[in-house]
Amino acid sequence: MSEKLWRKNLINIEPYVAGEQPKNDKIIKLNANENPYPPSPKVKAILEGKTIAELRKYPSADASVLRAALAERVGLKSENVFCGNGSDDVLATAFRAFFNSDKPILYPDITYSFYPVWCELLKIPYKTKSVDDDFVINIEDFKEPNGGVVIPNPNAPTSLGVGEKFIRELLENNQDSIVIIDEAYVDFGRYSCVELVKEYDNLVVTQTFSKSRSLAGMRVGMAFASAELISYMQAVKDSYNSYPLDQIAIETAVASLSDEDYFKATVEKVKATRDRTAKKMREMGFNVLDSETNFLFAQHEKLSAKEIFTYLRENGIFVRYFNKPRIDNFLRITIGTDEEMELMLEKLSEIC
Ligand code: PMP
């Protein structure tokens, strides 16, 4: 086929590879950072109350009920909230809206693998900044002139978070660019900077219902930012699609937000399981980073990540390992239920 038939830069794009989907329900799936618990019973009630006839109608064009509920939860206004089909969609919209300078955008070298995909696709120049040997992000690296900054907090796949001091210093030193903080895992961590939206009009904070709210299949994500930045995101959102979210997604997300007790209880359960699992893995000779997420990033002192991955896979447990420089010997293990983690630890103990 003639080269003219596709955009040349697409050749450089490495499509994001999602965790392998098991072929049956018996597989323990710990490879996509999904929540092991179901969404709130209030979500179930919404779905059970639906009639097929409702699908005739278009959804709310601006997801106003959801935006209002989200704004209220974090002490902002609806005009400070943008919603999209998962935070991937929201992040892609923000990249499209804000990263259009000749200067490169900056993000850590070990981070969420979608950032380079969007940069290549949208022809955004970028420069990665090396995290240190302990995978810590150095604030000094993010003080040079740039066309924007993206930091996931906590970072993935390292599972490490930064605190308020880091984020404030980042914002103070980047007042002429847009700073995106990707908070996909923040509910399992220690610090969300969403409050700083009131202070910094160059800050965009993205979050998701996929992890802490068990709604990955529903595809709901959001951004919080100044009203001006949100208006630009509205302007470029999937260009002329007036309906960024479907009606069922809007209503289930609102139902999830109305059940704060359930949300807090499941997050606490995942965190407790995470910390117990990390402790036991350390006793087996793993270096496990101090996770602020719903997954563990770990390396064994003797066995390779690939060996462990393969053994677990043969025993019906799917985890991730990374075929990339610096992290090629690390496993990323999503936190499942206590029973799932016990089984995983049992299998690890057979080889470690
Ligand atoms: N940011 C990070 C750091 C992630 O790991 C993920 C999940 N793969 C996302 C954003 C996107 O999640 P979602 O689109 O499901 O909201």
TrEMBL record:
It holds the Pfam family Aminotran_1_2. One of its GO terms (molecular function) is histidinol-phosphate transaminase activity. Pathway: Amino-acid biosynthesis; L-histidine biosynthesis; L-histidine from 5-phospho-alpha-D-ribose 1-diphosphate: step 7/9. The modification N6-(pyridoxal phosphate)lysine is found at K211. The keyword Transferase applies. Keywords: Amino-acid biosynthesis, Aminotransferase, Histidine biosynthesis, Pyridoxal phosphate, Transferase. Its EC number is 2.6.1.9. It comes from the Bacteria. InterPro entries: Aminotrans_II_pyridoxalP_BS, Aminotransferase_I/II_large, HisP_aminotrans, PyrdxlP-dep_Trfase, PyrdxlP-dep_Trfase_major, PyrdxlP-dep_Trfase_small. Belongs to the class-II pyridoxal-phosphate-dependent aminotransferase family. Histidinol-phosphate aminotransferase subfamily. Homodimer. NCBIfam families: hisC. HAMAP family: HisC_aminotrans_2. This is Histidinol-phosphate aminotransferase. It comes from Ruminococcus bicirculans.
